[in-house]
């Protein structure tokens, strides 16, 4: 039987240089899509999947993330006094149900995703866990992580979220060497991080959702660097192929790369158009822009 996934790691220690100057004093994970920060979407996705314990791997200048998932007594009292119960519920819904369900650890140097995950080893312990990258915002009828947890309960092992990308973009991603595909699961026979376009084994790319066995930490402990001179999670996962079942989940949903400015704008438009309180105004505005040429 597979062990239940209870913990999820959020690597949020990056510098957010692609969004400077906006991210000079604000974590990129706090950038809002409509009226909710990226990191809250990620946490809500994890909770939809039934994950109970949240581990944030932070860095310098990330205090706003901790504050966001904590009580703000003055704000809560003000909203209650003014009868703004709907806003009060929205502002407090992301907090832990029980004390101790949210933990923070510091990644003192930005050495790559693999290093960030390794920094969470003592909080994860010897059990399988999930990793969610808030930059990858996935909009669909069911959360991507919920789809992955459902798949994990059937096949166990390691899983990654996967999607097809244009061949000319394969150098931006971890790329699968795919095996057999059944339903929404593709067997992973190999992984390579950011290959040259001509060397990419497929166009199926790893997207920022993972379910990993704790043995990954022993490979990350070697601190070996890969693409970009960083400690790559993809390289450690590749070494586990053959030791445990390994699958890519071809998720149902649309992924927005919110680490990219255009992808971030796309996400804001898409989520605004899905909001009954503003969809008509946004659509009319877009129509006006199109008519103006």
How does this structure look, described?
There is one protein chain. The chain starts with 6 loop residues before the first strand and ends with a helix. The strands form three sheets. The chain has a nine-stranded mixed sheet. A two-stranded antiparallel sheet has the order 2-3. The longest helix is centred in the last third of the chain and has 14 residues, at 279-292. The protein is built from eleven helices and 13 strands. The protein is globular, with a radius of gyration of 20 Å. With 293 residues, it is of the alpha/beta class.
The largest sheet is: 9 strands, mixed
Percent of residues in helices comes to 25-40%
Mean pLDDT: 90
Tell me the total number of β-strands. Answer: 13
Poorly predicted parts: none
Question: What general form does the structure show?
Answer: globular
Sheet/helix structural class: alpha/beta
Distance between the termini: 59 Å
* Strand order in the largest sheet: 5-4-1-6-11-8-12-10-9
Order of helices and strands: EEEHEHHHEHHEEHEEEEHHEEHH
User: How large a portion of the residues is in β-strands, by DSSP E?
Assistant: 15-25%
**Helical region count?**
11
CA-atom Rg in angstroms? 20 Å
Concise overview:
The chain has 293 residues and is α/β, with parallel strands linked by helices.
């Amino acid at each position: 039987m597979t062990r239940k996934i209870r913990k999820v790691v959020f690597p949020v220690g990056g510098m957010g240089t692609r969004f400077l100057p906006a991210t000079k004093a604000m974590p990129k994970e706090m950038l809002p899509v409509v009226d909710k920060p990226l990191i809250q979407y990620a946490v809500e996705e994890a909770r939809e999947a039934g994950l109970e314990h949240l581990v944030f791997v932070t860095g310098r200048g990330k205090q706003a993330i901790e504050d966001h998932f904590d009580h703000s007594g003055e704000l809560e009292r003000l909203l209650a006094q003014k009868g703004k119960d709907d806003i009060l519920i929205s502002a407090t819904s992301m907090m832990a149900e029980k004390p101790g369900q949210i933990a923070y650890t510091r990644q003192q140097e930005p050495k790559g995703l693999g290093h960030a995950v390794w920094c969470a080893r003592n909080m994860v312990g010897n059990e399988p866990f999930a990793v969610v990258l808030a930059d990858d915002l996935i909009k669909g009828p069911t959360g991507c992580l919920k789809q992955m947890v459902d798949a994990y309960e059937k096949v166990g092992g390691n899983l990654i979220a996967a999607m097809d990308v244009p061949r000319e973009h394969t150098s931006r991603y971890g790329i699968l060497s795919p095996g057999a595909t059944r339903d929404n699961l593709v067997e992973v026979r190999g992984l390579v991080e950011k290959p040259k376009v001509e060397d990419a084994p497929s166009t199926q790319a790893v997207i920022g959702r993972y379910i990993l066995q704790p043995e990954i930490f022993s490979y990350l402990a070697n601190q070996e660097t890969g693409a970009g001179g960083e400690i790559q999670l993809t390289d450690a996962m590749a070494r586990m192929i053959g030791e445990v079942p390994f699958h890519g989940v071809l998720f149902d949903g649309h992924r927005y790369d919110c680490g990219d400015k255009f992808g971030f704008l796309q996400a804001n438009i898409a989520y605004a158009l899905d909001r009954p309180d503003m969809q008509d105004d946004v659509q009319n505005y877009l129509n006006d822009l199109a008519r103006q040429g």
